[in-house]
Write a structure and sequence with these properties.
With 130 residues, this protein is an alpha+beta fold. It has a single domain (6-120), classed as Rossmann fold (3-Layer(aba) Sandwich), CATH 3.40.50. It is built from 3 helices and 5 strands; from the N terminus they run H-E-H-E-H-E-E-E. It has a 5-stranded mixed sheet with strand order 1-2-4-3-5. Keywords: Polyamine biosynthesis, Transferase.
Amino acid sequence: MRIGDGRGALAEERDGAFDYIVLDAFSDKGTPRHLISQEFFRLVRSRLKPGGLMLMNLMGRGGSDWQIQAVHTTLASAFPHTRAFVLPEEGAASLKNMILAGSGQLIGFKARYMAGFTQATLPPGYILTD
């Protein structure tokens, strides 16, 4: 485990070094832009072993949140397989804890192990670049 600027640390690693990369970097202002761009997700994919998985912990408003839609669409531009999960909250406009996953292979899961998170379908958004 390394703590610090994830992009800088990841750039120093060799290709195929990781089975999993977990991104949990958000504040009340959201996730830093350099950690949700197409260039960053391509870097992440290059550092994952074949079949490796990226997981992102985010806060958003689910399918009605244009920023979450953009992050998911950008993730999908770098990974052929993605999934989105949301922890349901009261009210469509309330902030929700979300998990986005990206992989070069199909992403399986068992709902009973998801701690209340449910799979979500997100509308397409735009691609974020540096």
